[in-house]
Amino acid sequence: MPIQLYPGYDAYSDVNLLGLCVWREARGEIYDAKFGVACSIRNRVNHPTWWGHNYHEVILEKWQYTSFDPSDPNSTKFPGATDPAYLECLEAASCVINGKMTDTTGGASSYFDKSLDTHPPKWATDGSNIHTADLGHLHFYERKQDVQEA
Q1: Which residues, at least 6 apart from 53, have a Cβ–Cβ distance to it below 8 Å?
Q2: What are the residue ranges spanned by the domains of the chain?
Q3: What angle is formed at CA 78 by the lines to CA 81 and CA 84, rounded to 5 degrees?
Q4: pTM as predicted
Q5: How far does CA 61 lie from the centroid of its chain?
Q6: How far apart are CA 119 and CA 18, in angstroms?
Q7: Which of 72, 92, 100, 111 could join 38 in a cystine, given CB atoms 3.0 to 4.6 angstroms apart?
Q8: For residue range 109-144, what is the model confidence (pLDDT) as tens digits?
């Protein structure tokens, strides 16, 4: 199946696109959770599959990050250059891309907010993923297939 990307982000560097994704997905979270989201995206890049082979493909692949889906209100939000949460997201993105810190998610490639605990995503309960960490209000999961290949 060919990769279908959300348009309009070609001019973004990897750090800026990753920072924007983390901001849209986790701007209200503590730094550790923001860093975890960035790590989970890098983990997808490092295990190229149908997710894509680079940051743009992984982040912009349709139906992967709801904050880029045009039907999501977050898809039209952009941070101010001095927004403290955005600056943290950019720092996390830079650290992840430059390999300055160790992955704190245990190899996770997916996550969901604890507000969904009573109705978690199917992939979190069907045995295809293993719970690896809790950071802030987020649960992180690694695909069982990636664990078996390691």
Answers
A1: 45
A2: 14-149
A3: 40
A4: 0.92
A5: 12
A6: 28
A7: 92
A8: 999 999 999 999 999 999 999 999 999 999 999 998
